[in-house]
Amino acid sequence: MAAAVVPAAGRGERLGPGAPKALRDLGGAPLLVHAVRALARSRAVGLVVVAAPPQGVAEVLSLLDSHGLDGKDIRVVAGGATRQESVRLGLAAIPESTEIVLVHDAARPLVPVEVVDAVVAAVRAGAEAVVPAVPLADTVKRVRPVAAGEPEPVLDTPDRATLRAVQTPQGFRRETLAEVHAKALTEEAAGGSPVVTDDAGLVEYYGGRVVVVPGHEEAFKVTRPLDLVLAEAVLARRRASDGF
Ligand code: CTP
Ligand code: MG
To answer: Which of 67, 68, 75, 164 has its CA 20 to 30 A from that of 31?
Structure first.
């Protein structure tokens, strides 16, 4: 059985004023409830640990209770000041006997279960770290950032065919993920800290191997207001087509 950590302690600054992002409504349920349900739909997932906003642990617990979640073991811990800290705190609540851990953003409410299963399958098949990802639609340029309002000089244009936009759930051997988070914490305490924006980034930073499996366009992250409009549309289409 795999366990999942769901970092849900962010403010959602880019979504604009309102409740913490994980608690914002999408078609009648909070984003977090959708994200936990998406994981619970996988037969491979037995335990889900949510890292909630530190002030919202009790609220999140009762919220998840009231949305009946397929008899899975669901726990809630207080998250931290950064996503990385939230993941570390969630990971600490997962039994050491667990072999496979997923990390899934509460802000990705619509990930299809096929993606969850594909990530677990790749870890089972021997990978220590797995990320779902999709090809990019846009051409990407590296620039030298300058003061706002000034045109930015382009440095170069990476070959788009070699680029992937990375999603979650990311999957790991539990031991590997716990080890890199512990190392990062030690480095932080010493005044440094690896600059990474996802868990696989930590594995890479410490020399581990990460592989990519196909993600899905519906696993997008709700970041800005327009993403919520898209999520509402995807959910409405699912409900119309299969009584989802
Ligand atoms: N997250 C977390 N703890 C934090 C910050 C972020 O658990 N201290 C979680 C968010 O709740 C989200 C996921 O990490 O599910 C991805 O982060 P992001 O999309 O950046 O969410 P927010 O940090 O909430 O949004 P913003 O950066 O716009 O404030
Ligand atoms: Mg953030």
So the answer is: 164
Using a 6 Å cutoff on CB, does residue 10 contact ligand 1? yes
Nearest to residue 103, comparing CAs of 50, 52, 57, 63?
A: 50
pTM for the whole thing? 0.96
Is there a contact between 111 and 170 (Cβ–Cβ < 8 Å)?
no
Query: Is the CB–ligand 1 distance for residue 31 below 6 Å?
Result: no
Query: Does pLDDT of 162 surpass 60?
Result: yes
Q: Scanning the structure block, which residue is given the tokens 């992002």? A: 21
Output the six-digit token pair for 186.
């030690």
Instruction: Report which protein residue has its CA nearest ligand 1's atom 8.
Output: 82
Hey, which bits of 140-194 come out as E strands? 142-143, 154-156, 164-166, 170-173
**CA dist., res. 37 & res. 113, Å (int):** 10
List the residue whose alpha carbon is closest to atom 6 of ligand 1. 10
pLDDT score of 243: 59
Band of residue 70 on the pLDDT scale cut at 50, 70, 90: low
DSSP E strands in 105-226: the ranges are: 129-135, 142-143, 154-156, 164-166, 170-173, 211-214
Instruction: Among the bound ligands, name the one nearest to the CA of residue 106.
Output: 1
Distance 25 CA to ligand 1 centre (A): 16
Tokens 């609220």 correspond to what residue?
59
pLDDT tens-digit readout, 132-153: 999 999 999 999 999 888 999 9
Cβ(80) to ligand 1 under 6 A?
A: yes
- 168 in contact with ligand 1, CB cutoff 6 A: no
Ligand 1 atom nearest to 106, measured from its CA: 15
